[in-house]
Amino acid sequence: MLIPLTIAAVAGYFLGAIPFGYLVARAYGINIFEHGSKSPGATNVKRVLGKKAGNTVFALDAVKGALAAGWPLLLACWAAHRSAATSDHAIGWTVYTANVKVLSPDTVIPAAVTGLLFAVIGHSFSCFTRFKGGKGVATSAGGFIVLMPVVTLIALAVWLVTFFVSRYVSLASILAAVAIPVGAFLLHKPPLLTGLAALIGAFVIILHRANVGRLLKGTENKFVKKPASAPSVNP
């Protein structure tokens, strides 16, 4: 099992480490690490550059998580289909590359879990931006929508209700991070997925610890819409 998990970890980290927030902001001519909250996350990009840029970053960051968690599932489906075409026992499939076992039925979910975990780590501590990054909300959401779509939709509902009532993105993200493991537990998801949800949820909350302090003090900034056409900012 070590080789599939290692492949998933490395692939997940480098997928997650792609700094889309930084790259999109650079396309607008600014260094996002020098503006707003100085975070390359979608929320800060939206505050600084407007809705279009922020939504683009959120979508791209979510795709990173979806790919990191989804490639083992896609590869498993392909291998099982190919095996079924030649045998009545598709459960016996195994994927090899250069005589190295890349994936087998018993490593699919562990590989998907490992991939998503390391994608979130890569997003938050990107080797391409001196180990600085975002808080992992969009990347986590992208991965969980692949692994646990119903649970993720519940967490999304929690995020939306909290945000539209309070206008605090941080509070909405924290409560959504709590909703994921709680939803996984209540819907009787496998322990591995529930454990991953709890681990990533705790990780996201820890990265929001400064926001928690400001929320408790009443100094946290509420989200204010940016005009569609953001003013030009010098790099």
Can you give a write-up of this model?
The termini are far apart. The protein has a two-stranded antiparallel ribbon. It has one domain (2-217). The longest helix is centred in the first third of the chain and has 36 residues, at 51-86. Mean pLDDT is 91; it is low at 228-235. It is globular, with a radius of gyration of 19 Å. It has 10 helices and 2 strands. The protein is mainly alpha-helical.
Short account of what is shown:
With 235 residues, the protein is mainly alpha-helical. It contains ten helices and two strands. The chain has helices at residues 2-17, 20-27, 42-49, 51-86, 108-124, 137-147, 149-166, 169-186, 191-207, 209-217, and strands at residues 95-97, 100-103.
How is the secondary structure organized here?
Blueprint: H1 2-17, H2 20-27, H3 42-49, H4 51-86, E1 95-97, E2 100-103, H5 108-124, H6 137-147, H7 149-166, H8 169-186, H9 191-207, H10 209-217
Antiparallel strand pairs: 1-2
Strand content: under 5%
Tell me the helix content: 55-70%
Flag low-confidence runs: 228-235
Mean pLDDT across all residues, rounded? 91
SSE string, helices as H and strands as E? HHHHEEHHHHHH
What sort of overall outline do the alpha carbons produce when their principal axes are compared? globular
Query: Count of helical segments?
Result: 10
